Protein backbone atom coordinates (compact mmCIF):
# COMPACT_ATOMS: atom_id res chain seq x y z
CA UNK A 1 0.00 0.00 0.00
CA UNK A 2 1.14 3.53 -0.72
CA UNK A 3 1.69 5.79 2.30
CA UNK A 4 -0.76 8.34 0.90
CA UNK A 5 -3.50 5.68 0.66
CA UNK A 6 -3.24 4.63 4.32
CA UNK A 7 -6.03 5.68 6.69
CA UNK A 8 -3.55 7.04 9.24
CA UNK A 9 -2.03 9.30 6.57
CA UNK A 10 -5.48 10.53 5.59
CA UNK A 11 -6.20 11.30 9.25
CA UNK A 12 -2.88 13.12 9.58
CA UNK A 13 -3.64 15.22 6.50
CA UNK A 14 -7.25 15.88 7.53
CA UNK A 15 -6.18 17.25 10.93
CA UNK A 16 -3.54 19.42 9.24
CA UNK A 17 -6.07 20.84 6.81
CA UNK A 18 -8.63 21.39 9.60
CA UNK A 19 -6.01 23.24 11.66
CA UNK A 20 -5.15 25.43 8.69
CA UNK A 21 -8.85 26.15 7.98
CA UNK A 22 -9.40 27.06 11.67
CA UNK A 23 -6.60 29.67 11.58
CA UNK A 24 -4.45 27.74 14.04
CA UNK A 25 -1.42 27.99 11.74
CA UNK A 26 0.23 31.07 10.31
CA UNK A 27 3.14 30.57 7.91
CA UNK A 28 5.08 27.57 9.27
CA UNK A 29 3.54 27.71 12.76
CA UNK A 30 2.58 24.51 14.56
CA UNK A 31 3.51 20.85 14.31
CA UNK A 32 1.88 17.41 14.41
CA UNK A 33 3.15 13.92 15.11
CA UNK A 34 1.57 10.47 15.12
CA UNK A 35 2.98 7.24 16.60
CA UNK A 36 2.11 4.64 13.97
CA UNK A 37 0.69 1.23 14.84
CA UNK A 38 2.91 -1.77 13.88
CA UNK A 39 0.35 -2.97 11.33
CA UNK A 40 0.21 0.52 9.77
CA UNK A 41 4.00 0.49 9.42
CA UNK A 42 3.96 -2.97 7.80
CA UNK A 43 1.19 -1.98 5.39
CA UNK A 44 3.25 0.86 3.85
CA UNK A 45 6.82 -0.37 4.45
CA UNK A 46 7.27 -1.16 0.72
CA UNK A 47 7.60 2.60 0.11
CA UNK A 48 10.27 3.13 2.78
CA UNK A 49 13.90 3.79 1.90
CA UNK A 50 16.80 3.39 4.28
CA UNK A 51 19.39 5.59 2.58
CA UNK A 52 19.13 8.66 4.78
CA UNK A 53 21.44 8.90 7.75
CA UNK A 54 20.64 8.51 11.44
CA UNK A 55 20.48 11.84 13.26
CA UNK A 56 20.52 12.75 16.95
CA UNK A 57 17.04 13.37 18.39
CA UNK A 58 18.37 15.71 21.08
CA UNK A 59 16.49 13.76 23.75
CA UNK A 60 16.60 10.22 25.06
CA UNK A 61 13.37 8.22 24.62
CA UNK A 62 14.28 4.55 25.10
CA UNK A 63 10.63 3.48 25.47
CA UNK A 64 10.06 4.65 21.88
CA UNK A 65 12.92 2.56 20.41
CA UNK A 66 11.93 1.06 17.06
CA UNK A 67 8.72 3.12 16.81
CA UNK A 68 7.74 4.98 13.62
CA UNK A 69 6.39 8.54 13.73
CA UNK A 70 4.62 10.54 11.07
CA UNK A 71 5.67 14.15 11.69
CA UNK A 72 5.48 17.56 9.99
CA UNK A 73 8.70 19.08 8.65
CA UNK A 74 10.60 22.01 10.12
CA UNK A 75 9.75 25.23 8.25
CA UNK A 76 6.91 23.54 6.34
CA UNK A 77 3.46 25.13 6.11
CA UNK A 78 0.31 23.32 7.32
CA UNK A 79 -1.62 24.69 4.35
CA UNK A 80 0.66 22.59 2.11
CA UNK A 81 0.25 19.26 3.94
CA UNK A 82 -2.67 18.18 1.77
CA UNK A 83 -1.39 19.98 -1.33
CA UNK A 84 2.21 18.71 -1.26
CA UNK A 85 2.25 15.90 1.31
CA UNK A 86 5.56 14.31 0.30
CA UNK A 87 7.30 17.69 0.66
CA UNK A 88 5.59 18.67 3.94
CA UNK A 89 5.90 15.74 6.31
CA UNK A 90 7.79 12.50 6.80
CA UNK A 91 7.84 9.14 8.49
CA UNK A 92 10.77 8.64 10.85
CA UNK A 93 12.12 5.51 12.49
CA UNK A 94 13.57 5.70 16.02
CA UNK A 95 16.74 3.62 16.56
CA UNK A 96 17.15 0.87 19.13
CA UNK A 97 18.70 3.23 21.71
CA UNK A 98 15.96 5.86 21.50
CA UNK A 99 18.49 8.63 20.84
CA UNK A 100 18.55 8.76 17.02
CA UNK A 101 16.05 8.90 14.16
CA UNK A 102 16.15 8.56 10.39
CA UNK A 103 13.64 9.59 7.75
CA UNK A 104 12.30 6.60 5.80
CA UNK A 105 9.60 8.36 3.77
CA UNK A 106 8.70 11.94 2.74
CA UNK A 107 10.38 15.35 2.90
CA UNK A 108 11.43 14.52 -0.66
CA UNK A 109 12.98 17.95 -1.17
CA UNK A 110 15.08 17.73 1.95
CA UNK A 111 14.56 19.02 5.45
CA UNK A 112 14.05 17.54 8.87
CA UNK A 113 11.21 17.00 11.34
CA UNK A 114 9.83 19.96 13.26
CA UNK A 115 12.18 21.72 15.67
CA UNK A 116 9.74 20.61 18.40
CA UNK A 117 10.40 16.92 17.57
CA UNK A 118 12.26 16.35 20.89
CA UNK A 119 9.25 17.86 22.74
CA UNK A 120 6.85 15.67 20.77
CA UNK A 121 8.83 12.50 21.44
CA UNK A 122 9.19 13.19 25.17
CA UNK A 123 5.43 13.80 25.33
CA UNK A 124 4.76 10.62 23.34
CA UNK A 125 6.95 8.68 25.79
CA UNK A 126 4.92 9.97 28.75
CA UNK A 127 1.56 9.40 27.08
CA UNK A 128 2.50 5.92 25.85
CA UNK A 129 3.31 5.00 29.46
CA UNK A 130 0.39 6.62 31.28
CA UNK A 131 -2.24 5.46 28.76
CA UNK A 132 -0.83 1.94 28.22
CA UNK A 133 -0.06 2.80 24.60
CA UNK A 134 -3.48 4.20 23.75
CA UNK A 135 -2.44 7.81 22.98
CA UNK A 136 -0.71 8.29 19.63
CA UNK A 137 -1.22 11.93 18.57
CA UNK A 138 0.57 15.11 19.68
CA UNK A 139 -0.56 18.41 18.15
CA UNK A 140 0.82 21.91 18.65
CA UNK A 141 -0.56 25.12 17.13
CA UNK A 142 -1.05 28.84 17.72
CA UNK A 143 -4.75 29.48 18.45
CA UNK A 144 -5.64 33.18 18.70
CA UNK A 145 -7.90 33.17 21.75
CA UNK A 146 -5.79 30.92 23.98
CA UNK A 147 -2.76 33.09 23.23
CA UNK A 148 -4.73 36.29 23.91
CA UNK A 149 -6.02 34.86 27.19
CA UNK A 150 -2.46 34.16 28.33
CA UNK A 151 -1.99 37.93 28.63
CA UNK A 152 -4.93 38.16 31.04
CA UNK A 153 -5.08 35.01 33.19
CA UNK A 154 -2.27 34.13 35.63
CA UNK A 155 0.07 31.30 34.54
CA UNK A 156 -1.79 28.92 36.82
CA UNK A 157 -3.41 25.75 35.51
CA UNK A 158 -6.00 25.69 38.29
CA UNK A 159 -7.28 29.17 37.40
CA UNK A 160 -7.21 28.43 33.66
CA UNK A 161 -9.09 25.17 34.13
CA UNK A 162 -11.81 26.75 36.26
CA UNK A 163 -12.28 29.73 33.92
CA UNK A 164 -12.41 27.51 30.81
CA UNK A 165 -14.83 25.07 32.47
CA UNK A 166 -17.14 27.96 33.35
CA UNK A 167 -17.13 29.17 29.75
CA UNK A 168 -18.94 26.19 28.24
CA UNK A 169 -20.80 23.29 29.85
CA UNK A 170 -19.04 20.61 27.74
CA UNK A 171 -15.58 21.64 28.94
CA UNK A 172 -15.44 19.73 32.25
CA UNK A 173 -16.55 16.63 30.33
CA UNK A 174 -14.04 17.03 27.48
CA UNK A 175 -11.04 17.91 29.68
CA UNK A 176 -12.10 16.79 33.16
CA UNK A 177 -8.44 16.42 34.21
CA UNK A 178 -7.93 20.18 33.56
CA UNK A 179 -5.20 21.99 31.64
CA UNK A 180 -1.56 22.67 32.47
CA UNK A 181 0.07 26.06 31.90
CA UNK A 182 3.69 27.08 31.33
CA UNK A 183 5.00 30.65 31.43
CA UNK A 184 6.78 31.98 28.36
CA UNK A 185 9.81 29.84 27.56
CA UNK A 186 12.28 29.53 24.68
CA UNK A 187 10.65 27.19 22.13
CA UNK A 188 12.36 24.16 20.59
CA UNK A 189 14.70 23.53 23.53
CA UNK A 190 15.17 20.87 26.16
CA UNK A 191 13.69 22.96 29.01
CA UNK A 192 10.26 23.46 27.42
CA UNK A 193 10.25 19.80 26.33
CA UNK A 194 10.89 18.60 29.89
CA UNK A 195 8.39 20.99 31.48
CA UNK A 196 5.69 20.08 28.94
CA UNK A 197 6.23 16.35 29.39
CA UNK A 198 5.88 16.84 33.17
CA UNK A 199 2.45 18.42 32.56
CA UNK A 200 1.53 15.53 30.25
CA UNK A 201 1.79 13.13 33.20
CA UNK A 202 -1.53 14.64 34.37
CA UNK A 203 -3.05 16.67 31.57
CA UNK A 204 -3.81 16.24 27.86
CA UNK A 205 -3.54 20.00 27.27
CA UNK A 206 -0.51 22.22 27.90
CA UNK A 207 -0.86 25.98 27.38
CA UNK A 208 2.34 27.80 26.43
CA UNK A 209 1.83 31.44 27.46
CA UNK A 210 2.09 33.92 24.56
CA UNK A 211 2.84 31.03 22.20
CA UNK A 212 0.13 28.40 21.81
CA UNK A 213 -1.14 25.03 22.92
CA UNK A 214 -0.03 21.38 22.99
CA UNK A 215 -2.65 18.62 22.95
CA UNK A 216 -2.38 14.84 23.19
CA UNK A 217 -4.96 12.22 22.27
CA UNK A 218 -5.70 8.68 21.14
CA UNK A 219 -7.10 9.56 17.70
CA UNK A 220 -6.77 12.49 15.30
CA UNK A 221 -10.45 13.36 15.82
CA UNK A 222 -10.25 13.37 19.61
CA UNK A 223 -7.00 15.35 19.67
CA UNK A 224 -8.29 18.01 17.28
CA UNK A 225 -11.65 18.02 19.07
CA UNK A 226 -9.91 18.69 22.39
CA UNK A 227 -7.82 21.48 20.89
CA UNK A 228 -10.91 23.00 19.26
CA UNK A 229 -12.93 22.80 22.50
CA UNK A 230 -10.29 24.60 24.59
CA UNK A 231 -9.82 27.30 21.95
CA UNK A 232 -13.59 27.83 21.65
CA UNK A 233 -13.96 28.13 25.43
CA UNK A 234 -11.11 30.66 25.41
CA UNK A 235 -12.94 32.65 22.72
CA UNK A 236 -16.15 32.73 24.78
CA UNK A 237 -14.28 33.80 27.92
CA UNK A 238 -12.41 36.48 26.03
CA UNK A 239 -15.69 37.86 24.62
CA UNK A 240 -17.22 37.97 28.10
CA UNK A 241 -14.15 39.68 29.55
CA UNK A 242 -14.19 42.16 26.67
CA UNK A 243 -17.64 43.33 27.77
CA UNK A 244 -17.51 43.08 31.55
CA UNK A 245 -15.12 42.21 34.36
CA UNK A 246 -18.02 40.88 36.45
CA UNK A 247 -20.03 37.90 35.23
CA UNK A 248 -23.70 38.34 36.19
CA UNK A 249 -24.09 34.56 36.51
CA UNK A 250 -21.98 31.56 35.69
CA UNK A 251 -21.65 27.80 36.18
CA UNK A 252 -21.06 27.43 39.92
CA UNK A 253 -18.99 24.87 41.88
CA UNK A 254 -22.29 23.34 42.97
CA UNK A 255 -23.36 23.05 39.32
CA UNK A 256 -20.11 21.23 38.50
CA UNK A 257 -20.75 18.82 41.39
CA UNK A 258 -24.23 18.19 39.98
CA UNK A 259 -22.61 16.87 36.77
CA UNK A 260 -21.08 14.13 38.91
CA UNK A 261 -24.15 13.35 41.00
CA UNK A 262 -27.07 13.73 38.59
CA UNK A 263 -28.05 10.09 37.95
CA UNK A 264 -29.23 10.54 34.37
CA UNK A 265 -26.33 12.71 33.25
CA UNK A 266 -23.58 10.86 35.11
CA UNK A 267 -24.73 7.49 33.79
CA UNK A 268 -24.15 8.76 30.24
CA UNK A 269 -21.12 10.95 30.92
CA UNK A 270 -19.36 9.72 34.05
CA UNK A 271 -16.96 12.43 35.12
CA UNK A 272 -14.75 13.01 38.15
CA UNK A 273 -13.76 16.60 38.85
CA UNK A 274 -10.94 17.41 41.27
CA UNK A 275 -12.21 19.68 44.06
CA UNK A 276 -9.07 21.83 43.72
CA UNK A 277 -10.68 23.37 40.61
CA UNK A 278 -13.97 24.10 42.46
CA UNK A 279 -12.55 26.67 44.87
CA UNK A 280 -14.67 29.49 46.25
CA UNK A 281 -13.91 32.76 44.46
CA UNK A 282 -13.39 35.93 46.48
ZN1 LIG B 1 4.78 27.00 18.20
SSE layout and pairings?
Blueprint: H1 7-21, E1 31-35, H2 38-44, E2 55-56, E3 68-72, H3 85-88, E4 89-94, E5 100-106, H4 117-130, E6 137-141, H5 144-149, H6 157-167, H7 171-174, E7 180-182, H8 190-199, E8 205-208, E9 212-217, H9 220-243, H10 253-261, H11 263-268
Parallel strand pairs: 7-8
Antiparallel strand pairs: 1-3, 1-6, 2-5, 3-4, 4-5, 6-9, 8-9
Helix pairs in contact: 4-8, 6-9
The protein binds zinc ion (ZN).
Principal-axes geometry comes out as: elongated
The CATH homologous superfamily of the largest domain is termed Class II aldolase/adducin N-terminal domain
Q: How confident is the prediction overall: mean pLDDT?
A: 97
Bound molecules: zinc ion
Task: Write a concise keyword list for the protein shown above.
282 residues, alpha+beta, L-fuculose-1-phosphate Aldolase, 9 strands, 39% helix, elongated, binds zinc ion
Walkthrough of the structure:
The structure is a single chain. The protein has 282 residues and is of the alpha+beta class. The chain has two domains: 1-139, Class II aldolase/adducin N-terminal domain (L-fuculose-1-phosphate Aldolase); 143-282, Class II aldolase/adducin N-terminal domain (L-fuculose-1-phosphate Aldolase, 3-Layer(aba) Sandwich), CATH 3.40.225.10. The protein is built from eleven helices and nine strands. A nine-stranded mixed sheet has the order 2-5-4-3-1-6-9-8-7, with helices on both faces. Helix 4 (117-130) runs parallel beside helix 8 and helix 6 crosses helix 9. The longest helix has 24 residues, at 220-243. It is elongated. The termini are far apart. The mean pLDDT is 97. The structure holds zinc ion (ZN).
Amino acid sequence: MKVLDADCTKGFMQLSEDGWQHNYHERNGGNLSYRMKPEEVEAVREEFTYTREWKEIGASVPTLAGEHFMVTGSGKFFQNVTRHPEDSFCITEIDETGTKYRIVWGLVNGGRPTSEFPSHLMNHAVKKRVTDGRFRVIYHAHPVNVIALSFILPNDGIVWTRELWESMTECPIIFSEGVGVLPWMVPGGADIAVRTSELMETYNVAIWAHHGMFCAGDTFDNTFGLFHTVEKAAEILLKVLSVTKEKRQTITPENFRQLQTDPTFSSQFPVTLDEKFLYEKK
